[in-house]
Amino acid sequence: MSFFEPQPPPPFTWEPQLAERDWEPPLWQRASEAVLPWVYPINAVVHRNDEFVIAVDHLSVYPNGFNIHSTVLHDPHREHDVGLMMHPLGSPRVGVRFANGQTGGRREVRGPGDIPMDDQGIPIEPYVAGAGGGGGPGSGWKFWVWVYPLPPDGPMEVFFSIPFARLEEASITLDGSAVRAAAPQAQVIWT
User: Fold this and answer.
1) How far apart are CA 163 and CA 62, in angstroms?
2) What is the CATH number of the domain that holds 40?
3) Is the pLDDT of residue 41 over 90?
4) pTM score of the predicted model
């Protein structure tokens, strides 16, 4: 016995015309598309004031880097201007400092062409880019950033500046060794 009842046949037949991709994004520019990441839980408050809480929920760790997933909650008993987060000057800024002293981050709006690269087109500093987010006044906001490469062993600092939450700067220290060790746990689905 099936949980779902059978569906009626579709009113038409659709055959997708799939072709091989001619272009793939650079390995450093975003998470591997054919990989199920290893979820590394954090669940730590980075900053709290009378109006907002900013927390790092978890990291999604891939063989080529990781996403930092964060949440911004607001006091539901207070009025807030929802449009502040959508304003370019209100967007979260995130940066990292690896144990070897390398730094990188979204200090301002910039594209991949604005970061220093080696002769093979690979960033020579950590690359941090907005990867997604959403939410609203009833639930707060969630956002995540992509970081390339995996951190070296040792402590890794993650910095946040979120103007709409009246947060000039706050940071959290994570275990870069544990993040690096989590990467082989990601499941490569297609190569």
Assistant:
1) 30
2) 2.60.40
3) yes
4) 0.84
